[in-house]
Amino acid sequence: MHRVKDNINNIFCDSYFSLDDGLGERRQVFVIPNDIVGRIAKSSIVRCAETGFGSGLSLAATLLEAWQLSGSIEWYSVEAHPLSPQTINALLSPFEEITLIKETFLETWKSMYEHLKPGWNDKTFTVLGSNIVVNLHLFFGDINDYLDELSKKLGLGNTIDAWFFDGHKPSLNPAMWTEQVFVKAAALSLLGHSSFASYSAAGIVKQGLRKAGFVVERKKGFGRKHHRLCGYFGGRD
How many other CB atoms sit within 10 Å of the CB of residue 177? Predict the structure, then answer.
């Protein structure tokens, strides 16, 4: 739990989202490639897993995209350095499109933050005017412990539909981008069904994903970033 100034995480000296258009970045880099709308329209539920909760902007962008639908979002995430409600409010306030989502989410986050404990912290909320129920499952702790516990949390036979690989850049926060992380994610993925998106297109990320069995595509990045990655789980050889 730490201070943040001007969208910069002072632990990793990296921004939480694009300095140009954070909401647009979340939509283009994560939400659309993972086909969130299509998945909810088809089965009324989508299970998303994120590697770094940060400001919660990816969750807000996902809910905004699915606003007109009916169903539920099971949102699994991990955070070792949770932000205060005041800090998240300051980070999300510039995005007027998500004002209603932000206000409801912050009520939920304030309650979760005040009673935060190591391991899983669960809350459910629905934004007025939306028929989407959000079940937020936040793991307070380490990325590897999170992925180990996620298997138990999902329950027998359940897998992740959409992965949001979104830790701070690999050069600054390498623990979020190891081969071990991708192998554990692959073990929770369904062949030909589970998708992923990553804002980082670093070589270590591409190689790690491919080695774990993900089919990787490199796409044009958002804003000042040259490239991003997306794809699906194709299985290991």
Answer: 24
